[in-house]
Amino acid sequence: WDYDKSDARLVDSFFSRFDLERISTLRKYQKPFSTIPIPEKFFFRGNEITVRPYQKEALLSIDKALEKNKRRLLVEMATGTGKTLVAAMMIKRLFQAGLVERVLFLVDRIELANQAKETFDNYLSEYPSIVLYGGKRSKEGQIIIGTLPTIQSQIDAFTSGYFDLVVTDECHRSIYSIYRSLLLHFDAIHIGLTATPSNLIDRNTYEFFSCWNPLTRKGEPTFIYGIRQGINESYLAPYKVYHARSKISLEGIKWQGEDYEPQDLERTVSVEDRNKLFIQEFKENEEKRNGDHPKKTIVFAITKRHAAQLTRFFNELYPEYKGKYAEIITTDTFDPQRAIKRFKKEPLPAIAVSVAMLDTGFDYPAVENIMMCRPTRSPIFYQQMRGRGSRLCTEIGKKEFLIYDFVGNAEYFNDEGYNPFEQKKVAMRQPTKEVEKEITEEEIPEQIVRQFVTIPLGQVHDEWVEKKYIEFGPEGEKVDTREYKDKFAEEVKKLSDTNKIVIKLRQQKDVTDEEIQELGQLLNHPEFFFNENNLRQAYDQPTGSLVDFVKSALGIHKFPTKEERVSRAFDAWIIQKNYAPGQTRILRMLKNQFLAGSKADVSDFNRPPISQYGGLQYAIKTFGEDGLKQVIDDLQQGVFQ
To answer: Which CATH number, 3.20.20.70, 2.40.37.10, 2.10.109.10, 3.40.50.300, labels domain 17-231?
Structure first.
C-alpha cells in the first residue's frame, strides 16, 4: 500500500528492501513538471531539431496525466512522427522530475532494441542505457532495453519494484498471452506507445492502460496524433496508389490465423511470368515519371524464395547496374544490418526486397516507393507497410510517395491514397473528349447515351452488389462488411464444437453474463476484433447483442431487415404521439425516404414526394420551426438507427 501516493493495489511479488529504500530516497528530490521547460530546439545526431507542436502537446498530455497520479497511459502516434524521440524526451522529463530512476523499454524485435538504444545514447547520454540480450543480466544502466522474450526469460531476476517506468513500444501486441503477465509483474508507471490507429486497438489494450470509457464503449488514449493529421500539417508525406494492371486472383487461398497462409500465397503469387510482369510494369511507370535518379523502393515479398526471385528479375531488367540495382534483405541475408545500412547510405541498391524485416521499425525518409507484392488482409500489417514511405525527406526533395499495389491490398482496404492538397478526381475510365467539358443533360452526345443500357424492372434477380464497409482498417480504411461477417462466421464455426459457451448457444441453452463476457474477450482479438460495436456495424443491427450475432452465425437467429426494424420502431414511436393526420402522413413519407437511402433531414422536405405536399414551408407551418427540428432529432435518435 503506497499510502502517501495512492490507494492500495495488488503487486505480483514483494518489493526488496533496496527497492523500498530507493523509492523513498527518490521521492525526496521530486519536483513538478511545470519547473522543467520543454526545449524549443535541441541537437540530435548532429542536427538541430525543432520540437514540433504536436510533440510538445504529447509531452504536456503525459505530464497532466501523471500529475493526476495516473499510472497507465497510452500514446498513439503515426509512423514517421518521431514516436521514439518523443519517448526519449518523456523519459528525460521523468528523470528530471525525480519520478523515475530505472526504466524498462520493451520492444518485440532486437533490431528495434538497437535502434532505440541509438536514440537514447544520443538524446539521453547522461542516463546510461543497455540492451539486454540472452544470458546474465547486467546491472549497469538506468535504462534497460529488451525484447519481450528476453525479459520474460529473466523475469525472476527482477522484483516487482525494480523499475519505476515501463515503456512498451507497439503495446497492442504485448497485452496477449504470456507477455501480459510480464507487464503485470512490474509495479511501475506503464506507458504504451503505438502507431496503430485507435480503431484497431481492442478493448483489452485500452483496459490495461486504463483508458477504456464504458459509457461510450470506446478507448480514449492519453494522446493521439494520426497519419492524416501529420499529412494535413505537412509533417508526413501524402501518398498515391498505383493500381497495377497485372492483378492476381486470390480465390481459394487458405487463411492462417487472420491472414493468408504464406505457402498458399507463394503458390498463387510467386509465378515467374507473373512476377516478371510486375517488374516490367514497375519499370514502365517509373520511366514515365521522368525521375532523375533511381528512387529508393521497398518491396514486400511473401517468402524468402519469392523475395529472391523478385530480386533476380529486377537485376535482369536493369542490367546497367550490374546486379546491384536490387538486394534481398531477410533474416537469411549475410549481415542484414550491413545490407540495410548499404541501402540507406549508398546509391545502390535502389531496391530492398524484404520479408518481415522492414515492415516495422525501419526508418529511412528517402524511400519514395512502396511495392506490395505480398497480399494481406491484416489492416495492421497493411498500415505498417504503407508507413515505411510516410516520412518527408528535404535532402532529395521528397514531398510524396507512391504505393505500387500489385495484389489488391489498397482496394481491399478502400485506400485510394491521401493528398489533402490536391482535388481528387474520380472516373471509371479516362474521360472522352466529349465529356471533358461541363455539359447539361440535354447536351449529352447520343454516342455516350448509347453506352448505357436500360433494364426493364423485374428482369434483374441477382442480389444487390453495392459494397458496404465497416470502419476498421488503418486510419479510416475500411473492410468489406461481407468479408468481415464471413470471417466472423468462420470463427464461430471453429468454436462451435470445442467452446462450451458456443455449444450452449448452439443448443439454445441460456448463458450467464460471465460466460458472455468470457466469449466476448475470446472473440475480440487481433486482427478483426469481433466485438459488439464492430458486429453491429457489419450486420447493420444497432441494437444487436453478441449472443444475437453468434446465434446468427450459427444459423439459429434471424435479424429483422432494416425496413422491418425501422417500421416497428416508427409505429411504436408514432402511437405515443398525438399528431394530426397531415403531420403523420408527412412523417411516414420521411420514414420511407430514409428507407430508400436518404439521410432523413430537412433536405428531404424539398424532394418528392414530400415536396408535392408543400415541402419544407408546409412542414414548418405544420410543426413550427423548433417543433420540426425536435421531431427530426427524435426520429434520427430513436427510430432511424
So the answer is: 3.40.50.300
